[in-house]
Amino acid sequence: MPEILQFLNTAPGGAPWLIKNPPRPRIRSALAGFSVNVRSRPPAVFNKCKVLYNLPMKRYNMVEAAKLLRVTRQTLYNWINRGWIKPGRDYRNYPVFTEADMRKIKNWKETIR
After folding, report:
1. Cα–Cα distance between 69 and 106 in angstroms, integer?
2. Confidence of residue 87 (pLDDT cuts 50, 70, 90)
3. CB of 16 within 8 A of CB of 5?
4. Count of helix runs (H) and strand runs (E) in the chain
5. How many other CB atoms are found less than 10 A from the CB of residue 41?
6. Model confidence at 37: pLDDT above 70
7. What is the pTM of this model?
8. Which domain holds residue 95?
9. Is residue 89 in some structural domain?
10. CATH number for the domain including 95?
11. What is the dihedral of CA 97, 103, 106, 107, to 10 degrees?
């Protein structure tokens, strides 16, 4: 039996699913060779003895924003189309909202009631 497995593994177009530990393909990326330290923090801003980190704000997509605002997703799209709110866009050109945007929209929504 081992001879058959060895033959299948070495034969061109053999049975690669029979290999116990197949070699993984190497993935090349544009950032190959660059290391990123995920534990490091961005430079701090010192203001009156307080350390404020310049961390990125959380972003909300349409579904998450609609749940937090207690409206439907279509309502958000209607507000965008009417020009009442102006969301940011992600790399796919989808609308996204930051925490600051969510605060502004919540305050605006409370005033129109």
Report:
1. 7
2. very high
3. no
4. 4, 5
5. 10
6. no
7. 0.51
8. 59-111
9. yes
10. 1.10.1660.10
11. -140
